[in-house]
Amino acid sequence: MMSRLLFASLVTLLLMDEVRTQPAPGGVIAGKITSSENGESLAGATIALAGTVLWTSSDAQGSFLLRDAPEGLHTLIISLVGFRAKRLPDVTVRGGDTTHLSIGLDPAPLQTEPVIVTASKREEPPEDVPASVSVVDDRLLSYRNAVTVDDALRYVPGVYVTQSQVNIRGSAGYSFGVGTRVLMLIDGLPFISGDTGEIIWESLPASQVDRIEVVKGAASALYGSSALGGVVNVITKDAGESPEAGLRFYGGIYDLPKYRTWRWTEEMRFFSGVHLSYARRIGDFSLATALDRSQNDGYRENDYRRRWNGSARFGLTISPYQSASVSFSILEQQRGNFLYWRDFDHAFQPKTDQLAQSVYSVRWNLSGGYRHFVSDRFLYSARFSWFRSRWDDNIPSQYDSAGSNSRSDNVAGELQADYRLSPNHTLIAGFAGSLEHVDADTIFGRHTGGGGAGYVQDEIALLDPLRITLGGRFDYQRLGSLESVSQFNPKLGLVYRLPDSSSLRFSAGRGFRAPSVAEIFTTSTAAGVVILPNPDLRPERSWSLDLGGSHRFHPCVQGDISIFRNEFWDLIEPAFGSDGVIHFQNITRALIYGAELTLNLNLFSGSAQSQVSYTYMVPRDVTTGDILKYRPRNLLYVSTQLDEHPFRLGVDLRILSRTEHIDDQFVTLGIIPGGEQRVPIYVADLRISADWAIGGLAMSSGLHINNLFQYYYVELIGNMAPTRNFVFTLETRI
Q1: Which pLDDT tens digit goes with each residue over 588-644?
Q2: Cα-flanking dihedrals φ and ψ of residue 576, to 5°?
Q3: What's the sign of the alpha-carbon dihedral 614, 236, 57, 382?
Q4: Distance between CA atoms of 675 and 659, rounded to whole angstroms?
Q5: What structural domains and CATH numbers belong to the chain?
Q6: What is the pTM of this model?
Q7: In this structure, what are the phi and psi dihedrals at residue 665, rounded to the nearest 5 degrees?
Q8: What are phi and psi of 394, to 5 degrees?
């Protein structure tokens, strides 16, 4: 019934609007983007023609050229990080003629993103977003030498990373590589493996990322399963107006452990990587390609990795109102298998039977998209993705002495329509479907599943400062012969805009997550631990509340505060049974509440920028009263950067309170000797970089010192975090 209603609404919207006639010969919009403060030319500004797919960017001199603009009156939207977005109405375009413009942008003392796309599945300014959202742009990825996307998330307010598993406001602890309560998207589509249901962060190198948007709190009303605790949407780079080739190299070395018993080798351990990229536009066609090679000896024994990444994105502007794109990425990786330490005296060495263990994997993703502005008020888009994962290991078990392997496919598609009933009223509706297949005889078995969903969202500004968002999504999923699962997830969002880009917000939403194939069907032995299937697992469910506000206290000081309350039912966690065997079980009803405060400062005319964030939360098991596993109560992040051209100096500080509760049975059963060892986390990173030129070629080089004070800590039981390491980077773009 829900699907029929949604289908009828989409058809009605289409019929209500006129289809565009064949466009007349286009014109050209040319101009220059400068700072209104000092007249300086601005490079990298995005200039988009509202109601079309046409856009361009300004070059190093601030100049831009927008071709094939339809004849008539239009609105230009100009945006650039660090400047206030500008809408320029009533721009006249005449066929075969050129319209010349000179556009000044007002500086924004604080570095903010011009638009957010993830929270409501459409572009909107940050002050109109009803949810708590953090953004990481490509400059920060480069400054911190982030190799994978999860590296970039370690300083996002409210986010905690445990051995590459991302935890947003305590929604997840650690699930040993299966399942995730944070949904990862690549350009708006799910990017999760079909077998383990986990995020494969290394599948997309950070060098291909334009920005990352992190939505905190349940988002199942728009994104369905796995968006129980939040969403991480990775938006990839597209080709700019001018051809660009890039080369980036980094090389590093790990410091040896301080204590003699921890030193498993006297040889220095190295890591390095190289990134090549090329992007350009040729008429209506665009191309962006990249190739990455990285290798790491590992600071622990048998913790090495060798990795290749390749990616390509092809775009086509079919007309001023239609565009299409196809993207492909691939990962090949060979790595050692370090599960946990031998004992605390040998914290950088695994048990002897793990020394020869390794995992080989190949994963690729094919995706595509199509957008069509049927009219100034009606837009529809279609997207698809196909994620193929294959891995083989040589880890013996009682079921297969040669090791395990898995082949999985996860295919997803989505059709969405956006209809603007009035300037202050927008309706979004869509369908989504997925199909997954897993072939892993010895560990998961063979299974096929899939599902479908329909969603709708209505956003209206009843009064000028008040914006209301109401929506919901119905999901249906089935895995093999198991009982199907379904749920309707509603959402409510309120935003009250105040002067000076300040706002108050409230959001409430329901979330759910269906268990992954691995959580239901795993049959394995790993390092003495036996794991058996549990086909009776139920979906996880949640309600999320968020009340917050953003205020500019001074042109150079902006604050954001959020109070949150998240309640969970039937959380799935691995647990020991009375027979000493582990099953994934619905064992936890949890309540997590707390507050998050973020301050952004821009001092000394923009040459000094700092962000300070503090998150306090109480993650409690409602049934037992215990604190949930692997969740620190306090997170304090401080990031400061000084820019005095051509030099940059940055300091990052992470302080996390001691994790109160872990999997104690691993210690009491003697599986991980010394596993109870853990401390609060105090980690400082330092980076220094400079821009220079040689023979007219622009260069950038830097020195990074991670874990500056050689602080020893664990994020996960029996796993010592990386020692101090020194990294040199060199980058150029042509």
Answers
A1: 789 999 999 999 998 877 789 999 999 999 999 998 899 999 999 999 999 999 998
A2: -75, 135
A3: negative
A4: 13
A5: 2-105 (2.60.40.1120), 126-733 (2.40.170.20)
A6: 0.89
A7: -65, -25
A8: -115, 30
